TrEMBL record:
Belongs to the FGGY kinase family. Keywords: ATP-binding, Disulfide bond, Kinase, Nucleotide-binding, Rhamnose metabolism, Transferase. Signal peptide: none annotated. This is Rhamnulokinase. Pfam families: FGGY_C, FGGY_N. Residues 253-442 form the Carbohydrate kinase FGGY C-terminal domain. It comes from Paenibacillus ottowii. Residues 3-241 form the Carbohydrate kinase FGGY N-terminal domain. The lineage of its organism: Bacteria, Bacillati, Bacillota, Bacilli, Bacillales. It comes from the Bacteria. SUPFAM superfamilies: Actin-like ATPase domain (SSF53067).
Length: 491
């Protein structure tokens, strides 16, 4: 049973061929490509047609391998979208969530509609780039696209539409917009009306594991492929990553680690109360009508952007080289809050880190090793803080932390996370989003009865590396200083 998983991240995309044999999952990467945002004037966009081209290239590579997949599915980052006009064509390139056009918009929408009102209706954390604020920003700019649009499609919805000609939404991604009411299980009419966006743009929301169409005849002709079903999996890549967590206990904590870090647990119902609002937790949809009670953490974006700046200056460092330099730098010299707004947008991260340290009365890091160590130690300490909050808002206690995603290839970060939380870290799989994508496709084909059977097979199919906590006293002292420097406290 060969299936194709398209896993699109904020910096790269990949196509994985998955085979299920003898209750084992075998995965082969058959295509990888960069995903580079494009700045035009003052606006930052996704190159969506290039991404669609790469989707087709993945199909061609499978065909040239002699593979006829029984289905395919796409997952990607959340919140971003395209608008379709009455002729069925895309109206403009989708904005990138790091574009500046949402600056100040979230606060204005909160003033008009009420922060508690929005949270009670959605259970979604407040992030400046949420879909609701992107649409409100376009309305504020009097974007002509809003007058021409007839349909709203998020990134995987849009690519599925290009492939199949069918327009559907998917549950995990729909919940991320802060425009979906999880208790009423529908798009929220009052919030859409509150930002003056037509309800008619928003159609049927499919459950993960639903068939969302078949490759259209023109694509079959152009590529020389058959009528392949297209499945709506958990199309928010974090939803797919959580589906692949090889947990054997029903109560577990996870950290999906990559450009973004997302930490939380899985719940049967959204947790919408004073604590989740106060600590800005979110309730995003998952597989089997579960919810991901989690928080976004800035993640390895800060290190990726620092590395890009060094490259622009003519210094080329691989990530393993930066990790080696970090190990050689002094410990706990300076600490940052990775989620400070200073670090949200692209730019010179070294200068911003030094600014943060100057503002908080700390020594200023200078070398690539010192900068990298500051970032990684701060991330590990922030993970400890968020894990404490996750236990509080969920009412659960966790024996350790499952880390998944590409960030687990940074063994230093995994070990420092174990040191920081003083609990074991179980790292794997690295390609969690793609494997979760594959697993839900097999659930659709009734190869797995539910997500727990799938997780059992995933656990048997991969190597999970365990990191035991160490240096408890040093990390406990550092955590206290981290809390004081960042002003983060559990009330």
């Amino acid at each position: 049973m060969s299936v194709l998983a398209y896993d699109l991240g904020a910096s790269s995309g990949r196509v994985l061929l998955g085979k299920l044999t003898d209750s084992r999952i075998v995965v082969e990467e058959i295509h990888r490509f960069s995903n580079d945002p494009v700045k035009v004037g003052e606006r930052l966009h996704w190159d969506i047609l290039r991404l669609y081209h790469e989707v087709q290239q993945g199909l061609l590579k499978a065909k040239h391998m002699g593979v006829n997949p029984s289905s395919l599915a796409i997952d990607s980052w959340a919140v971003d979208f395209g608008l379709i006009g009455e002729t069925g064509e895309l109206l403009g390139n989708p904005y990138h969530y790091r574009d500046w056009h949402t600056h100040g918009v979230m606060e204005n929408v909160q003033k008009r509609l009420g922060k508690e009102f929005i949270f009670q209706r959605t259970g979604i954390q407040f992030l400046t780039f949420n879909t609701i604020y992107q649409l409100a920003a376009m309305r504020k700019m009097s974007s002509p696209l809003l007058e021409q649009a007839t349909h709203f499609l998020m990134i995987p919805d849009l690519l599925r539409y290009f492939l199949t000609g069918e327009m559907f939404h998917e549950f995990s991604n729909a919940t991320s917009t802060q425009l979906y009411h999880p208790l009423q299980q529908k798009w929220d009419d009052e919030l859409l009306s509150g930002i003056n966006i037509p309800r008619s743009w928003f159609g049927e929301v499919l459950e993960p594991g639903s068939v969302a169409g078949t490759i259209r005849s023109s694509v079959m002709t152009d590529l020389g492929v058959g009528a392949i079903p297209v499945i709506a999996v958990a199309e928010h890549d974090t939803g797919s990553a959580v589906a692949a967590v090889p947990a054997l206990e029903r109560s577990f904590a996870y950290l999906s680690c990559g450009t973004w870090s997302l930490m939380g647990t899985e719940t049967a119902q959204p947790v919408i109360n004073d604590d989740t609002l106060r600590f800005n937790f979110t309730n995003e949809g998952g597989v089997g009508r579960t919810y991901r009670l989690l928080k976004n953490i800035m993640g390895l974006w800060i290190l990726q952007e620092a590395r890009r700046e060094w490259e622009r200056q003519g210094y080329s460092y691989s990530f393993p080289e930066l990790v080696r330099l970090a190990e050689q730098a002094p410990a706990f010299t300076c600490l940052i809050d990775p989620d400070d707004e200073l670090f949200l947008h692209a730019g010179d991260m070294k200068t911003r880190i030094r600014q943060y340290c100057r503002n908080t009365g700390q020594p200023l890091p200078d070398t690539p090793g010192e900068i990298t160590r500051c970032i990684l130690e701060s991330l590990a300490l922030k993970y400890c803080y968020i894990l404490e909050l996750t236990e509080r808002v969920s009412g659960q206690r966790f024996n350790g932390l499952h880390m998944v995603g590409g960030g687990i290839q940074n063994h230093l970060l995994c070990q420092w996370t174990a040191n920081s939380i003083q609990k074991p870290v179980w790292a794997g799989p690295a390609e969690a989003s793609a494997i979760g994508n594959l697993a839900v496709q097999w659930m659709t084909q009734r190869k797995f009865s539910d997500i727990w059977e799938a997780r059992g097979v995933i656990a048997d199919s991969i190597v999970v590396e365990e990191y035991e906590p160490a240096e408890s006293e040093a990390w406990e002292d550092a955590y206290g200083r981290f809390r004081r420097v960042t002003g983060l406290f559990v009330h």
